Amino acid sequence: MTSDFHxxxxxxxxxxxTRPFWDACRRHVxxxxxxxxxxxLFLPAGPVCxxxxxxxxxxxALSGRGEIAAFTIYRQAYHPDYPxxxxxxxxxxxxxxxxxxxxxxxxxxSVASGMSVTVRFASRGEFVLPLxxxxxxxxxxxx
Amino acid sequence: xxxxxxxIAGIGxxxxxxxxxxxxxxxxxxxxxxxxSDAGLAKHDVDGLITDPGPTQGVINGxxxxxxxLGQHLGLSPDFVGSEVLGGASSAASIQRAVMAIEAGLxxxxxxxYGDAALSSPGSFAYGRGEESVFGFFGATGLHALAAQRHMxxxxxxxxxxxxxxxAARAHAARTPHAQLREPLDLDGYLASRLVAEPLRRxxxxxxxxxxxxxxxxxxxxxxxxxxxxxxxxGFGQAHSLCTWSSPGHFDALPAARCGPATLERAGLAINDIxxxxxxxxxxxxxxxxxxxxxxxxxxxxxxxxxxGRIGPGGSLPVNTSGGLMAxxxxxxxxxxxxxxxxxxxxxxxxxxxxxxxALISGHGLGMNTHATLILGQ
Lengths: 143, 378
What we know:
The structure holds 2 protein chains of 2 kinds.
Chain A: H1 19-26, E1 31-35, E2 41-42, E3 57-61, E4 65-74, E5 86-93, E6 98-103, E7 116-124, E8 127-134
Antiparallel strand pairs in A: 1-2, 1-3, 4-5, 4-7, 5-6, 7-8
Chain B: H1 24-38, H2 54-57, H3 66-74, H4 90-103, E1 109-117, H5 139-155, H6 159-173, H7 187-192, E2 195-197, E3 200-201, E4 210-218, H8 220-223, E5 232-240, H9 256-267, E6 276-278, H10 284-293, H11 302-306, H12 324-327, H13 334-345, E7 358-365, E8 370-377
Parallel strand pairs in B: 6-7
Antiparallel strand pairs in B: 1-4, 2-3, 5-8, 7-8
Helix pairs in contact in B: 6-10
């Protein structure tokens, strides 16, 4: 079922807190919010550190490496801009934070739990998205 | 004079005025930190959170409070109102709020109602999940598919185990005259069901329905003269896990793992004392996880536990005797409450559990964030 979907997922407005994450993606940098009080790294960024409630926050560039903690292959299309099949995965980054993204650069059927992945940036609509590829298929350039 | 068993221990607020560049979120965080500090408490002391979204996050952006819309049309001027926004935990939570309001003396007859015309509103379930929708992360199915895939990878759970839940729901619904989907389902039929978000199939998903359900909660002294024998409320509770992605255990256990044992303890019951089990069944995986988290079986063992029709009619642990969200119809969770009442009154017809004295109802909602438990008795 593809049906009316609003607002368009490719036209969202980042919040005051998440905008630095998306701006860093444009520079092909994957970053997490970092707490200057307790050193906690976290995503998504917010007004205070969710671990210690300090408002003294910064950002830290991450390696872009991690592993697949869980994944699903979408077989039903929800939106015309997202043709199936595609993989949604929960990625546990090496430095600790977790995020939702896509696994690309391989057949969906070859994706497995625990698979090592690395970030690959790709333009989509107004955004540069941090997508992930199997670590074996890692390219030296991100283009 | 009545003395309540609660006090106000701290206050906090921001300045009020025009503050360009500030958002509701950082203003709210500032007020919370101040109030906790004023009380001489710290983050780890906090175990409750209730938010009011305020005018621009709520009413002005088009979300009229649900109680206002309905109450207007019913011509009510009640002493106590509220709308729950806990997703699938809302129905169970609404009963809890009614009990608390009655015990606090704020009202004495409180109607709790669920209603939606979801089936007549195509596309309404294809919603995005915050900024993650930019990756194509839509709907509740994909979210539960992550949990289902993780369960299979960690514990060896198989599609046949998910099928047991779907097949049992249909078999129960066949004994429920008002059920939306009464056609039987077998394993071949389950496996032929199309994939939505692997490993979940259409047959793993609950129904989408137009419908409504209401429950009247009443002060016990007033209920004595009423037409129907009252059903007792033996215990209730909630537990929530609000850190969806950042919490490492989020897809491994539901907040039910805290809510269930705590609620049973309040009711003075053990899990084996429960006669009627009504678990929020938005997806088959949610039922398997709750069987574990409530302690019906050990963590990771729900797959083998449901084998052989154990949770179906005539099984040793019938679950969702009316067919639940998967086959009776999507009633938010209020229909689970109504089925519990029917079983405890002995009015469940062909699906009656003999001698049913206790019933446990669960609600599970949003991004697997919210949970509510309700225990009823005769």
